[in-house]
Amino acid sequence: MKAQAKSDDSASQLRWRTLQHDDIDAIAGLLAAVLKVDGGLPFAADAAFLQPRYLPSPPGVTVGAFAEDGRLVAAGAVRPDPADEACRATIVGQVYPDARGKGIGTVLLRWGMDAGRALLADCSAEQSGGLVVATEGLTDAAARLYERNGFVQEFAEDVMRRDLTGALPQAPFPPGVTVEAWTPARAGAFFEAYQDAFRDRPGFPGWTQEEWVDWVAGDNDFRPAISLLACSGDAPAGF
């Protein structure tokens, strides 16, 4: 990493080292600053979300770039895909907003590509799923950087958020549509709506109903009373 960093003045002025578990607060602060500028999911700066992504267990690898004052300026990590048949490595990385445009992101991405190729060294050409960059907020500059390095956008989704401190507009459901809250007895109908909505999405996991229900209802943050199923007649229409 140090040899690569020397190719860029800004990057070479930073102290690069492997991230440790004690750095989780610094990583969360970095991602919070990124979210404030780029937008995205609020929980993307939570320690529980960041831990497996930026501090993966071996053979995953990490790197952080620190300024002279100790501030974490950039962070990156590479981890193998948990699905053995994929033989694929996922790269994540972020640069502090006020440190962008100085080549640090390029150094970080190329480090990730080298580390990812090393993780996949034992994969055959038939097995390899290649390298994937995962990001919670894709800026135009980041998209150009990824394209210059041979990446093609595979999947994206927009996040809609609304301030709940003000009055909500009246938005009645269409005639014939009924809404009900989650119950174990209706979990199958929720699963049917999920399948119909997302089965053509790239990377769709293809879970069984049992696996999906356990993933949804087994989360400590799950709130069945405000998890709603919309039906048009007897057919699930959304959830």
Structural summary, described in words:
- The chain is of the alpha+beta class and 239 residues long.
- The strands form two sheets. A five-stranded mixed β-sheet has the order 1-2-3-4-5. A three-stranded antiparallel β-sheet has the order 6-7-8.
- The termini are far apart.
List the helices and strands and how they pair.
Elements: H1 2-5, H2 9-12, E1 15-17, H3 24-38, H4 47-54, E2 61-66, E3 72-80, E4 88-95, H5 104-119, E5 130-133, H6 140-148, E6 177-181, H7 187-198, H8 209-217, E7 228-232, E8 235-238
Parallel strand pairs: 4-5
Antiparallel strand pairs: 1-2, 2-3, 3-4, 6-7, 7-8
Helix pairs in contact: 3-4
Can you summarize this structure?
This protein is an alpha+beta fold and 239 residues long.
Quick one: overall form?
globular
> H/E order of the elements?
HHEHHEEEHEHEHHEE
Tell me the major beta sheet: 5 strands, mixed
Report how far apart the termini are: 46 Å
Overall pLDDT: 90
